[in-house]
Amino acid sequence: MSDLIHEFIFASAARTPAAEALVYGQRRLDYAALALAVRGAADALLGAGLGRGERIAVYMEKNVENVAAMFGAAAAGGVFVPVNPLLKPEQVAYIMADCNVRILVTSADRLRLLASSLALCPDLRMVFAVNPNGLDLPEVAGVSVLGWDSATAAPPGMQPHRAIDTDMAAILYTSGSTGKPKGVVLSHRNMVAGAVSVSTYLENTAADRLLAVLPLSFDYGLSQLSTAFRVGATAVLINHLLPRDILKAVAAERITGLAAVPPLWIQIAGLDWPADCTLRYLTNSGGAMQRPTLDALRRALPNAKPFLMYGLTEAFRSTYLPPDQVDLRPDSMGKAIPNAEVMVLRPDGSECDPHEPGELVHRGALVSLGYWNDPAKTAERFKPYRAEPGIVLAEMAVWSGDTVRKDEEGYLYFISRNDEMIKTSGYRVSPSEVEEVIYAREQVSEAAALGVSHPALGQAIVVVALCKPGQELTAAELLAACKPHLPAYMLPQRIIMAEASLPRNPNGKIDRKLLSLQYEHCFTENSQ
Hints:
With 528 residues, the chain is α/β, with parallel strands linked by helices. The protein has a nine-stranded mixed beta sheet, with helices on both faces. A five-stranded parallel beta sheet has the order 4-3-5-6-7, with helices on both faces. Strands 17, 18, 19, 20 and 21 form a five-stranded antiparallel beta sheet that branches. Helix 1 packs antiparallel against helix 2 (31-47), helix 1 packs parallel to helix 8 (219-231) and helix 7 crosses helix 8.
């Protein structure tokens, strides 16, 4: 059994060295070659003076070097920090400075854009640049810059630092739409337990081929690699530009498992999928999949089982709804994943009754080590929990900040994020309840319900909606469609029909906070 996240690769290489492990474009690595690449990366990082537990930032699009650098950092005894390639230089520099990054692995072209911002990273001492075109590498004041290929081809030198499963393995930064992002610290145990749990209920085997569509800086995206490597399956990397690129990759690589977030599923559902599609399952996380999207996917891909999942970066994955329950309870988040316990608690810590709203609290091996260097925010979300009387030392559980309810059979239902609840006319309204009614109109492809300051109501409900290509719907028509299904206090005070896709945060979710800022003065005197 593997205790450390990189050992998945080495174990699969020992079992099936010739099995295909990683595909990127025309490059195909079997497990023996991937293990060699990971060891080469570890040797290069150790040769650069990497200390135990020091941080290595990886900032580039998905490619073979990205994967080798991340798992090589873990193999060396360091901590990898995957940085979303969509972030701007100032944002990258903030993350690197925040977690005291010592070594940066990036591409030569990105380094040119970053170079001036790296002065904000006082702990940085080495940059490895992936440079397939042999371009001249820019100089960075006070920092050594080396080519990745030559560094990883050097003969082995130092022994890796010793690590145990409770040591740090990675720091994933959440996409702070307002304020600065927070670094969630993951241990090897967190990542290994997550891969074991997910691959168990998805029934992954070495025959699977998983398409890595999402950013590797997103826990859900990174999970596609750890899940594949745990069972000796194949991970296929894609930096897609259009939804049709995903369809082409699924067909060309005979993909069996596809993970995406709701906005992407909406686009994928409308594609013309071939009857002989090889997908055996679909997974959704990062927000609820609306019923019209789910129905469209099931029509387009009748042989692919849908797994509807819920998770938070602080504990990776919490619940899933098995495919055989989708028709019975399509609005449910499901039950706890293997090796996790999920509770619905009142503010005093007692368990809620069936259907009583409460906060989702997660305990078990997937609970992370808190937020990097932020004791105040960590104390808000991570709290001691005693599962059994008589146990003197309390474990740490994570309070999700999400309001949910549980039915008599133990199935969970999402109500709202506590910090997204709209407080209007003395009522608390869940944005998802309003959005569900909006999405029931077949013309709508994207929607977000927001709480905007209002002089009389406290907050007013504003809906921003986008129609599907070729479809038309006015704000008045959409409001009329809402009236039979929502009480007066839940009706939008304003509906804005967008002309382009709604803004996304770096993880691909609709950016509610940015939209709220954009429309925060809707009801001020100056805007009337």
